[in-house]
Amino acid sequence: MTLAVIGPGAVGTSIAMALANTSVQVDLLGKRDETLTFHEYATSEQHAVSVKALKHTNTHYDWLIVAVKTTQLDAILADIERLCHKETRIILAQNGYGQHDKIAHPYVYPAVVYISGQKTHPHVTHFRDYRLHVQEDPHTRALAQILTSSKLELTLERNIEHNIWYKLLVNLGINTVTALGRDTSKVLKYPSMAQLCRNLIDEGLRVAQADGLQFEPSLTDDIMTIYKGYPEDMGTSMYYDLTHQKPLEIDAIQGYIQKRAQVHHIATPHLDTALALLLYEHEKAQTS
Predict the structure, then answer these.
(1) How far is CA 28 from the centre of its chain?
(2) Fold of the domain spanning 2-158
(3) pLDDT at 118 over 90
(4) pTM surpassing 0.90?
(5) SS3 of 274, please?
(6) How far, in Å, CA of 288 to CA of 283, rounded?
(7) DSSP 139-154
(8) Closest C-alpha among 56, 60, 106 to residue 84
(9) What residue stretches are annotated with the Ketopantoate reductase N-terminal domain (predicted)?
(10) 3-state DSSP of 66-88
């Protein structure tokens, strides 16, 4: 079996390393041929990781794991098509939702990603977790069986939509307030920001319920409790992107939820205001 991971960021590099020393042929594909340093935070081990130039790769892979930022997906759609044969399966290991609609290939699996890491080029640090949640079917069951000897945990779900929406709501709250507050998770120590976070999750939950998802009434409280367990100095991907003046993944998180709210005619005043402010920062980053 052949497998490629597209995107040598923190998530993509961690996935490639988790699949090392298995029977699976794994290529890590990026903008250029290069070598990265991978640091396993828990053990302090370091390894050299080879990256192949995506544009110069013409292999037809059995599985593709796409781990680029959602803002970068449009630029590689032709590359994804080039690397597929008719039975290729594609896993989108990205934040948010809705990106699978951009890919014409028939076998696309949106995944929920639980991998914590950070990249400061050319150094990638993996902090915790090697877990992807995907929809269960015969093909993902076969893949999970093949990967049992690897560090990558492929968790199979009967209803991936539920998991996707749960992670969407988690990201909606903490990504938004850390980005707008230009601060790490300690921003939630301020009552006004904690209340904004709660209001955002409440609005997102109403949209999820209108989309047919069932969650416990205590979900907002449960997510706020999860945030309390975050280290105060922990940032989010959107916080780091904003502070480094990079485009933001708002279309796949806040923007996706807003679009679904509009379909169901649900008022989301806190989300609308937050999204307008984030869109302003996103457009500044695109023109800088």
Answers:
(1) 17
(2) Rossmann fold (3.40.50)
(3) no
(4) yes
(5) helix
(6) 9
(7) HHHHHHHHGGGSS-EE
(8) 60
(9) 4-129
(10) ECCCHHHCHHHHHHHHHCEEEEE
The answer to whether the beta carbons of residues 167 and 257 sit under 8 Å apart is: no
| Amino acid 96: pLDDT | 93
DSSP string, 196-232: HHHHHHHHHHHHHHHTT----TTHHHHHHHHHHTS-T
Residue whose tokens read 């980053």:
285
Q: What is the pLDDT of residues 225-278, one digit of tens each?
A: 999 999 898 889 999 999 999 999 999 999 999 999 999 999 999 999 999 999
**SS3 label, residue 253:** coil
- Asked if residues 4 and 53 have their Cβ atoms less than 8 Å apart, the reply is no
CA distances from 85 to 18, 24, 81, 91, 105 (A): 25, 18, 8, 15, 10
pLDDT-derived band at 21 (thresholds 50, 70, 90) equals: confident
Strands 45-53 and 34-40: antiparallel
Cβ(5)–Cβ(27) below 8 Å:
yes
Are the CB atoms for 184 and 235 separated by under 8 Å?
A: yes
Dihedral angle of Cα 104, 109, 110, 115, to the nearest 10 degrees: -130
| Assigned token pair, 115 | 């991998």
Which amino acid would we find at residue 226?
I
pLDDT, residue 234, reads: 86
State the residue for tokens 């907002």.
220
The domain segmentation of the chain, as residue ranges, is: 2-158, 161-287
Q: Is the pLDDT of residue 131 over 80?
A: yes
Supply the CATH classification number for the domain 161-287: 1.10.1040.10
User: What are the CA-CA distances from residue 276 to residues 174, 190, 198, 204 (Å)?
Assistant: 17, 22, 18, 16
